[in-house]
Each structure stands twice: as structure tokens, then as C-alpha cells.
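Data availability (excerpt). The following record was deposited with the supplementary files.
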Amino acid sequence: MSYNVSVLASTVYELLLSFSLYKRQTLMKYLDLGSKWPGEVEESLSPELKQAIASKENLFFEDLLVLFIEQSPYKHDIDSFFEWLGNMSAGELFERIASSLDDQRAIPTNLLAQRDQSIKLLKEWNTQYFQDHREGVLERLTADAESKQKMLEEDSGEEVILQASRFVVESKTVQNVCLIPSLHIQPMALIDHLKDTLYISYSVKDPKKERNELLRFTKALGDEKRLKILEFLSQESHTFTDIVSEIGMAKGNIHHHLSILRGAGLVNIHIKDDRNTFYYSTNKEIAEEFRMLVDQLL
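Predicted structure:
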């Protein structure tokens, strides 16, 4: 393994991720939260906050906040984190993120304005949504992070990453991988590539909801097209374009099937040097995991 693996648990990051999910709303039907979640959240938001979020053009600064969260001594305290972030000068902000960005992410000239807008929105998001869903969050995130840290002492970083997220890091340019436990994105995993570092948000499993995992398995396997995709990917890893060509379906349909397979943990995603292209392969250990879930149920 040519890269370092660390684990970051943070209620600030969970706040940020929940905000990003609401703003983007791209994965909702594949998450346990469900496609109705944004509408349910809106019931607790003021018209002013809904308008402010809707009018925000992009999440450039929010996507970089993980860099500040990682460096902050207040990653577990939302109010203290925002006070710490808000007191930084433009020069300090620049210094903390410049070395982590490549040519694909140019630093805007209005960095302070973006910081201030982000803090204002996220503070309101915390007040109107997140603080009512914070009970036990830090404890669960921390417990899972400690579990992964212990695994890193006994197993390889590659294996821990794979078990947590089904990502396989094969890029020669990656020097650091940061695993971030999350509750909102169950059962998916998300990745952000910043220069030589990968930030992988992975789902914290709820032992009380093992039946949900079994249902995801059976649903994913209960479709002939998805079985064909798994068979195709069982020989070697392939790109999305390869899968489209082999299966002969529209891109939107293939994306839908792959998302269901990902949510059930049936496919691995390979990260190579071309960061714009993912490779997929079948998780061949899934049969044993499926058998264990059935045994636990029965």
C-alpha cells in the first residue's frame, strides 16, 4: 500500500453532508432516507432559508469544508467550529486549502464572502433541521471510527477501505485516504478527490436494521439485468461505458441498476489514475455475507 489511511468522525461533517444532500437531491431514492426526505425537511425550514438554499449557485466552499474540519480542533462542536472558521482572514483560509487543490479547482477571489455565506446557511440549517437530529450522532460516529481505527491496526488499509465503502484505491497519485463515517448516506458511500487525497464518506451500519440489508440484497438480485451486470463484472473490472455496451440499455437505466447494486454492496468501485472514470467489479465475497445475514434472521 502506497498511501496513508486515516479516519475522521465529526458532527460538523455530518451537518455538512446532510445540507449537501438536501441541496443536491441526486441520490435520495437510493438512500434509506428516501425520496420524500427533502419534502419532509422543508416542513421545518423557514421560507427565508429555503429561498437562500435554492438561490445558492454552487457548493464550492462547502465541498472544501472537509479540509477545515480535518484541521480544526473543534470538529466535534458545531458552534465552536463556525466561530473558529469565521475568525480566519482571507490569507489563513487560502493557506489552509491551497496545497490541497489542483488546477481543476481554482480558488475564487471572493473567498471570504463565500465563507461567510456558507457559515450563515449552515448555522441556520443546524438550527432549523440538524440540531433536532443530533441525539446520539457523535457517539455513533465516534464508535464506528474507533472500530475502523482498530481494524487498521490488524488489517491492511486496502481491506478496511473495501469493507467500509466497497472502494478499491488503485491510483498511483493518491497519497492519503480519509475515511469519514456518516449516518445520512446509508447505504451508499461517496468519494471526493482533492489533489493527492481521497475523502471517502461511508455508511455507519445500524445493527438494529440488519433486515434492511437483507432486503437490499434480495431486491438487487431480483432483476435479470442486474444479474447480467454482476456476471459481466465478475470476470474483471469495467467502466460504465463498457457496461452500457455489454448490456445494451440506456445510460440512465444502467446508472439506476448500478446504484441499486452499490447500495446492496454487490459491486466494488475501483479508483484509478483517471479520476473522471470509475471501474466496477463484482463483490465476490457477497455470497458469504448474504448467508450470514440469512442465518442471523432465521
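Summary of structural features: The beta strands are 4-7, 167-169, 176-182, 190-194, 197-203, 238-239, 267-271, 278-282.
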